[in-house]
Design goal:
The protein has 342 residues and is an alpha+beta fold. It has eight helices and ten strands. It has an eight-stranded mixed beta sheet with strand order 2-8-7-6-5-4-3-10. Strand 4 and strand 5 form a beta hairpin.
């Protein structure tokens, strides 16, 4: 292992996200007796799970047809025979997704992969439609059929995402992760609340302008190198226990969240728990696509917490000699104070 110094920090002032307003379910007046709302929710959940299984079997059936009879499927879709290879690959994709859906009770991730597959199929058909060959009427009919299936897939994916806790009722993507660090809640709170320390373990922050102890402006590198910006404010500050934040104006990605510091069981240090809800234009699908680029927010936060653990426990970030990023220091950027106004 090669030890890599975390470098001079300066930035990540305060997480700019919002203190979450959690709602607690109302308990039934009669202990042990499920409420009508719980019973209705259970029936609805069962319906959505059944719909997912049905789509899983449909995916397997369609995949087998594309794999075993690509020529016939191509003719039905108004495509030329030179699309057989693409249809065979699509068949393998459909079978894989179908098996994935059937392997889980609430396969939100696999269902979103079907939505992505539908988008690819529509792109293939649109390309064929723009060409001069093939049966255009059949291709249009096939596009309408795929669009209809995509609508059902999207509906099921959104429902399953909420059931699995991936999203909130208003469609925000949810991130919920924790790590145990060998330090006291007081020390970790003080380290996190010193905004200059945050850039030492967060990897995607490019610049932070600190206005005051409660407000800041952020520039962060997003998926595929795209930069996003927002203003943020601290909404909750419980010394040695909790910090909450949210975006305010000019937020390209609206989000809110909190970090809590609680003693770990058995005196093994402190449990650092981060919760975030964020809205992106494509919702969970956007987060799933971002994962392909290695930039899904849940993964980012978990990686950041691991770097925080190393800094606190070891004093520096450790990186393997064989890491993809190679040798050298982690890039650190300084926080920038706001310009003084007259």
């Amino acid at each position: 292992m090669e030890r890599q110094d975390a470098g001079r920090s300066s930035t990540l002032d305060e997480p700019t996200v919002a203190d979450r307003h959690a709602s607690h379910p109302v308990r039934s007046a009669r202990a042990g007796a499920p409420s009508r709302r719980d019973s209705a929710r259970g029936a609805t959940d069962h319906t959505h799970e059944f719909l997912a299984r049905t789509l899983g079997w449909f995916s397997i059936g369609l995949g087998l047809a594309e794999l075993l009879a690509p020529g016939r499927v191509a003719r039905m879709a108004g495509l030329k025979d030179d699309h057989r290879l693409l249809l065979g690959a699509s068949g393998l994709r459909e079978i894989t997704m179908g098996l994935g859906i059937l392997s889980e009770r609430r396969p939100a991730g696999w269902m979103w992969s079907r939505v992505g597959g539908d988008a690819l199929d529509l792109a293939l058909l649109a390309g064929a439609l723009s060409g001069s060959q093939g049966n255009r009427k059949r291709t249009v009919a096939a596009m309408l059929a795929v669009a209809g299936v995509a609508a059902v897939d999207c509906f099921a994916s959104r429902r399953l995402s909420r059931m699995a806790g991936w999203t909130t009722d208003d469609g925000a993507v949810r991130v919920n992760t924790s790590i145990v660090i060998d330090s006291s809640p007081e020390s970790l709170y003080q380290f996190w609340r010193d905004f200059a320390n945050l850039s030492r373990f967060t990897e995607h922050v490019e610049a932070v302008t600190i206005y005051d102890r409660q407000h800041s402006h952020w520039v962060v590198k997003g998926p595929a190198g795209y930069r996003v910006e927002w203003n943020a404010e601290i909404t909750e500050d419980e010394p040695n226990r909790k910090i909450g934040w949210r975006t305010t104006s000019y937020a390209e990605i609206e989000h809110q969240g909190s970090v809590e510091f609680t003693p770990a069981p058995g005196g093994r240090g402190t449990m650092v728990h981060v919760e975030m809800d964020y809205h992106v234009p494509a919702g969970v699908l956007g987060a799933s696509i971002a994962t392909l680029f290695g930039n899904e927010p849940g993964q980012q936060i978990q990686s950041d917490l691991r770097r925080l653990k190393q800094i606190i426990e070891v004093g520096e970030v450790l990186r393997s000699d064989g890491s993809l990023t190679g040798k050298g220091r982690l890039p650190q950027r300084s926080a920038q104070p706001a310009e003084a106004t007259a």
